[in-house]
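Re: beginner question about structure tokens

> Can someone show what the tokenized structure looks like for a real chain? I only ever see the sequence side.

Sure, here's an example I had lying around. Input first:
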Amino acid sequence: MDDKGGFPHYMLKEIFDQPQGLRATIEPRVSVEDGLVRLDEVRIIADELCALRRINIVASGTSRHAGMAGQYMIQELVNLPVDVDYASEFEYRNPLIGKHELTIVITQSGETADTTAAQRLARSRGSRTIAISNVVDSTIAREADGVLYTHAGPEISIASTKAFTAQLAMLYLFAVYLGQVRGKLSKEQVRVHTRELLEMPAKVANVLQSAPDCERLARRYNAVQDFLFLGRAIHYPVAMDGALKLKEVSYIHAEGYPTGEAKHGPNALIDETLPVVIIATCDCNDAGSVLRYEKNVANIKSFKQQSGRVMAIASEGDEVVCKLADHTVFVPQASELLSPILEIVPLQLFAYYMAVAKGLDVDRPRNLVKSVTRE
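And the corresponding structure tokens:
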């Protein structure tokens, strides 16, 4: 039975599944009218959440990139320190964790060996744990103090797409919930944040209309062997995941870097042979975002002086970036903390069409499995 829904590959179907996955993950958990986020699945009492001194996020691959974005969300909305670790490296740094700390483990399958081991280590040292998983009753969910299920639906393609955006939404929900419990966010602030989050499915549907543009870009660049993806602050994890998607499905070497680090090495590589993909969106209501945007514009000008080819992800209506970059894909205006949900979509589409142009097995890239259950 073909359950691809008329799409040629599961990966493309799952990219287009994202509006529904986001709605299913977000809508049952928020009440704009009451100014509340309800996460009964957390199963940790308010007193313990109020006593937290630090949060640790542990994950691998795309889930770790979601965790990196979650770090920005929680620190901004809750003002609580957050560390992010590779699950495979967690035990080797002798993590100094214990009581009054929370460890969030993120895995689409709930069976990732490294992440399960990290969770067990955190629990053995007295840390409470919360799992974010897309699979009900998985190992990691059963062993956690609380579990937050994403409702992205089954993800068949090895390259994770819809699970990633659902994880981002869930981390944002948790950040707002924690800010609510700890008294950092008023009811009106919760209303604003939840209202913006509820707009994300429709905005993602809007971004999906850029698929033909992404396909044209893939045909233009499919002979290129190296890419550099750049992003600042919460957009850096998006650059990381955009590079990972391209590597996974098209076998093209790609690196994700913080934009500001380009001058500390990667700049030497930028010329007419190395395309640069830069996340250059702007939340005009956020002073920090505006400052980062101005720096991004200066960076694009510099790359063009080096004969670099620039592909930009920009906010709708941005004529400045459009004139500077060789190619621009626009996403709807969004708040700084939620824009990664939109920015990753054209990068997923670009990776998909690059692999298709090469005639590769998009859903089953060589040497990879969907769930890494052995180290």
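Each token stands for a local structural state, so reading them left to right follows the chain. The chain has two domains: 10-198, 207-357.
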